[in-house]
Each structure stands twice: as C-alpha cells, then as structure tokens.
Amino acid sequence: MNKNSRRRFLRQTVTAATGLALAPGLVSCGAGNTATASSSAPARAPEKGRKLNVALLGLGSYAKGQIAPSLQFTRHCQLAGIITGSPEKIPEWQAKHDIPDENVYSYDNMDELADNPNIDVVYVITPTATHKEFAVRAAKAGKHVWCEKPMAMTVEDSQAIIDACNENNVRLSIGYRMLHEPNTQDFIALSKEKAFGAFTAATSLAGYAGSDPPTDYWRGQRAMGGGALYDMGVYTVNGLRYGLQMAPVAVVKAMQHRPTEVDVTTEYTLEFPGGLLAEGKTSVVTNYNQLRIEGENGWHEMQPMQPYGGVKGLTSAGTVLGPPIDGKQQTLQMDDDALAIMNNTPVLAPGEMGRDDIAVIRAIIESAETGKRVVL
Ligand code: NDP
C-alpha cells in the first residue's frame, strides 16, 4: 500500500470508527480550531447513531444542484428542513425530499427554529452579503451553523458570526469543500511534510469562462458580494493558505478589471513569512485552475484545483495524486462537519479561517484601489 492510499485508508477507517463512537454526554461548543466543551451549554448532542437534521437556508442553484443531492449520500446527517423566501419553491422541495410542514420556514419566521428540536443544523447558502444576518439568526435559534464561502463581506461581519456561534454554544463550519476532498488532502499532506524542501514560490489560479455577471443579479452587484474575487478568488486565497501552511503577511500589489461594478478578473501578489511571494489570479471570464507550490527540490501541484469533481495532482517526482474523484466533496464535507459536531472535535474549516480569508480579500481590494502594499 503506498503512502497516499494508506492515508486514505486510515481516513476512511477513522471516519467509520468515529461515526460509531457518539458520546451521549457531549455538549456542543463554540466555533474554532480547538474543540472546547462549554461549561454552561445544554447537552444537545444527538442520540447515539442518530443522523443530524439539516435545514437548508436559501434554495438557489448550489442548494438545489449540489447540496441537496449530496445529502442523499451522507451517513451522519440528512436533509430535514428548508428556509426560503420563495413560497413557490416549497411544494417541490417538500415532495422531493419528504420534508414535513413543521420543518418549513420563511426568512420572517426562521427565529422560531429555536422551538424545533428536530433541526440541528442550518446551512446558509444565500448571496454572500446576507450570510451574516442569516448565520447570526440561526445561531441565536440555537442551531449549529454551516455557512457557505465566502464567509461574509467583511472581517467584522465574519467575526459577528463567530461571536454569535460562541455565545450560543453552537458549532460553525465554512463550506470550503476542497478541504474535504481526498486528493486535496493528499496535496496538503505533501505541503505539511515540505516534501520538496523549503517553499520558494507559489501560484494559485481559479477562473472560469463565463460572461460579465448581469447587474440585476446579485453576482453582478458589488454590495451583495458579486465579482470574481469574492466568488472564485476566495479559493485561490484559501488554497495558498493550505498549500503553504501559513498565512500571508501582506498584499504586495493587486489589479482588478471592473467593466461594471464588480471585478471580472483580479490578479494579486501576496507576501508570506520569510519574503516568499505567491501569485494569484481569479476570473469569471477566463478558464484556469491550478495550485502549484515550488520547493527547493521540486514542486507539487493540483490542476484542476477546485472543480466539483476530478481534482488531479502531480509532483516533480512523477507522483500522481489520484485517481480523480467525482462528485463526493459535499457529501464528505457535510459528514465531516456532522461528525465534528457529534464527537465534539475540531472542524476542518472553522470560522476563523473564513474570516482570515476575508481579511485577505479586503486587503487585495484595498491594494488594487490604492496601488499600495497592504499589511495584513
Ligand atoms: P443563487 O442565486 O442560485 O441562490 C441564492 C438563493 O439565496 C436564492 O435562490 C434565494 O433562495 C436565497 N436568497 C436569500 N436572500 C436573497 C437575496 N437578497 N437575493 C437573492 N437571493 C437570496 O446563488 P448560489 O446558490 O449559486 O450561491 C449561494 C451561495 O453559495 C453563495 O454564497 C455562493 O458563494 C455559494 N456557492 C458555493 C459554492 C461552492 O462550491 N462551495 C458553489 C456555488 C455557490 P430562496 O428563493 O429559497 O429564498
């Protein structure tokens, strides 16, 4: 068994084992890298063997096309409720997913979730500018929060979500699906090992050949979190974080192309500790998809680095990270996050990670607008 397949075998074994080991007395705990049991929290862990009940908030294209179908394959959580501002969507969702009337909410009455013990998690899948309001309300209703990327518009909004989850003793995960993808995890392991010596450079590219987002849709609106940098650029920033296993210290320079109010392409240079420079590029009008880490003795890369399926990796030693895996990321993500809640263990994508990536996004925008280096 080679190292990679052994790592994957171990991961599956651990997942299977932990899935069976639910401690009935567990308490929920606040967000963050470290799982700390709260002294005051009520014991709200599910009964042994029970799946966590998830309510999806925002029934748009990602919820319908990826998350709901992925929930059909999860072992530790299930689709149990919906929260929507579009009443016309309700009959189809209820019929397709067998959702009872008492688990259907609107944005007006979602605070009543506090009285519903049959919902454990609210998964926020709405336009980025709305994440803060919905995530904070879900936390205040006592529900664990899964929040899509990018976490929020600002560091302050991100911190408000973290604080609300901590204050209400619920867990928080950001929907960084790549962190749950097995080939990406093998790539990260090479980064952690510094398999090719000290890092010397990095490149992170994520873009797709779409068209200018229409201005009457949130993806074309700056105030709603539209544009390439928030949407795709957050993958490049997060990729550099896990590829280099450290946080950037400054944005050296950045450039944004904004034909309307949002950027369709953004390029940036980040500086990491020790003076290491990383180049990032993101776009909603041009295809590219690569994360490459250069070391003193070679390199490792993923290309493509963030599609829903088919992530491929390669190293300068000829090692292929793979085979490419189709369509399991969101299932793995939600099962990992459910197990973290049930076993009171750290999540792979905590709120602090989401917040720190938003700090980088904001600094890239500031650098592009001022032409100056921005220290993080
Ligand atoms: P859509 O526009 O397709 O859907 C968003 C949904 O949010 C709407 O259908 C609506 O649902 C709800 N909503 C609530 N408030 C508003 C509002 N003010 N304006 C518009 N819609 C609103 O977006 P996506 O599903 O593509 O994206 C949603 C989130 O998921 C974003 O944060 C995005 O970044 C993230 N995403 C993540 C991906 C990933 O790979 N991790 C991939 C794609 C998206 P309803 O009608 O039910 O109220």
Automatic annotation (TrEMBL):
Record GO terms (molecular function): nucleotide binding; oxidoreductase activity
A Pfam family per the record: GFO_IDH_MocA
Keyword Signal in record: yes
Domain (Gfo/Idh/MocA-like oxidoreductase N-terminal): residue spans on this chain: 52-176
Signal peptide positions (record): 1-23
Keywords: Oxidoreductase, Signal
Domain GFO/IDH/MocA-like oxidoreductase: start-end pairs: 192-299
Keyword Signal belongs to the record: yes
Family assignment from sequence similarity: Belongs to the Gfo/Idh/MocA family.
PANTHER family registered for this protein in UniProt: OXIDOREDUCTASES, TRANS-1,2-DIHYDROBENZENE-1,2-DIOL DEHYDROGENASE
Protein name (record): Glucose-fructose oxidoreductase
